[in-house]
Design a protein that fits this description.
By secondary structure, the chain is an alpha+beta fold. 32% of the residues lie in helices and 20% in strands. The protein has 13 helices and 14 strands. The strands form two sheets. Strands 7, 8, 9, 10, 11, 12, 13 and 14 form an eight-stranded antiparallel β-sheet that branches. Strands 3-2-1-6-4-5 form a six-stranded antiparallel β-sheet, covered by helices on one side. Strand 9 (283-287) and strand 10 form a beta hairpin. The termini are far apart.
């Protein structure tokens, strides 16, 4: 009952204000209209903050003609894309259409709320390399150690299918001390926008752990910090700069389902921050099909970058390795998640140029910033997607 009351309050608050509380609001339980309200407010705030020019009647007509068989939507989203990129491109997917109709059709939000839990990754993605897990809590049960950092060619054994063994809570401090390295504690569920990330120092991880654990009721996981490839470290040494890749599972119709990569970007930290999340001050940087950065960085509140704000380097033409390996992993993994036909994947590339899975966003992965820096989400598949979702043109 308490959960139902909170969800109702969240729904009313979001519908009224367009705001949500990171790490508390259960976004997967919001109505489509409430989710759209969040992105509508963000678009209006970006226009107000940056003074993006209004679209001309001809530009609006071109956009509406492109989506003529779809539900009507406000062109403010295209106005923001125009303000950020300097281009009026009808194929940009407006968030009102995407979150109001397309993602709810493609993605089971309620299932995502339970499956999208980092403590399950050892089971769900057992053949993909992940950061070494030192300890985790699932429900009220603690687990220690894992084989999740072992690749498929080096399978390990453990007492559970999750790649970890149950331990007493009293054993956790010893596990943290014996790790001998800096650790990262992550809330494992309902952690949108990077909420719930804490670093535990190598010198005294137990004190840091005791300080942050008091307020955490959710499942959580504690892992070693990934040592990233030099090419990614050069983007911003203080943070692990991760790839964000969106993939699409084409249901196939008469043919077998297939996975297509929609868009790719790297998230880059700024200002000495330890994380690369946009809400923390980082930005998305688009990557082309040759693995090179495209030159426009997209940050929070409509901000754009052409060079790194502190390090000063040009954002265009940087070659980043390991991306093809990530694509291969995604194409092998995504078919196993038929309830989630659009997935946003976060991968780091480690010192050995091997992909390391950081997070899987089964719902509400975000589209505005990645489209701004990488181009329209569905590209030349936009009409095909709209035909399936809205039943037009058949």
């Amino acid at each position: 009952m308490i959960g139902s009351v909170k969800r109702l309050k969240d729904e009313i608050y979001v519908r009224t204000t367009g705001r949500f509380v990171e790490g508390s609001t259960e976004l997967d339980y919001l109505s489509n209209a409430a989710v759209v309200k969040i992105f509508e407010k963000q678009a209006k705030d970006a226009i107000r903050r940056h003074g993006y020019p209004e679209l001309t009647p001809a530009q609006k007509a071109e956009i509406r003609e492109y989506y003529r068989d779809c539900p009507k939507f406000d062109t403010i989203y295209h106005r923001v894309f125009y303000g950020r990129t300097g281009r009026v491109e009808p194929a940009y997917m407006p968030e009102e259409l995407y979150y109001g109709y397309i993602e709810p059709y493609m993605v089971d939000h309620e299932a995502a709320r339970y499956i999208d839990n980092k403590t399950y990754y050892g089971l769900l993605f057992s053949d993909i390399k992940q950061p070494e897990t030192i300890a985790m809590r699932m429900g009220s049960v603690w687990y220690g150690g894992s084989t999740s950092d072992v690749s498929a060619s080096e399978p390990g054994r453990s007492d559970t299918a999750f790649g970890a063994s149950p331990v007493a809570k009293s054993e956790i401090p010893g596990l943290l001390r014996s790790a001998g390295s800096e650790l990262i504690l992550k809330i494992a569920e309902n952690s949108e926008e990077g909420a719930g990330i804490f670093f535990l120092s190598k010198e005294d991880p137990v004190t840091d752990f005791k300080r942050v654990i008091r307020e955490i009721k959710n499942d959580l996981i504690i892992q070693r910090v990934v040592k990233q490839h030099p090419a990614y470290a050069a983007l911003h040494p203080e943070s692990v700069n991760t790839l964000r890749i969106m993939s699409y599972l084409d249901a196939g119709g008469r043919e077998r389902p297939k996975v297509e990569i929609l868009t790719t970007a790297v998230r880059v930290g700024t200002g000495g921050l330890r994380v690369d999340n946009v809400t923390a001050g980082g930005f998305f940087l688009g990557i082309d099909d040759k693995g090179r950065t495209m030159g426009l960085g997209a940050g929070a509140r409509g901000k754009v970058y052409r060079e790194h704000p502190e390090l000063g380097y040009d954002l265009k033409g940087i070659e980043l390795p390991g991306i093809d390996k990530v694509y291969e992993l995604i194409k092998n993994a995504h078919p196993g998640f038929g309830k989630f036909r659009i997935i946003s994947w976060d991968f780091a590339i480690d010192e050995k140029c091997e992909p390391v899975l950081i997070e899987v966003n089964l719902a509400l992965g975000g589209t505005a910033n990645i489209q701004a820096c990488s181009g329209p989400l569905f590209g030349d598949k936009t009409a095909e997607v709209c035909r399936e979702v809205f039943g037009v043109g058949r």
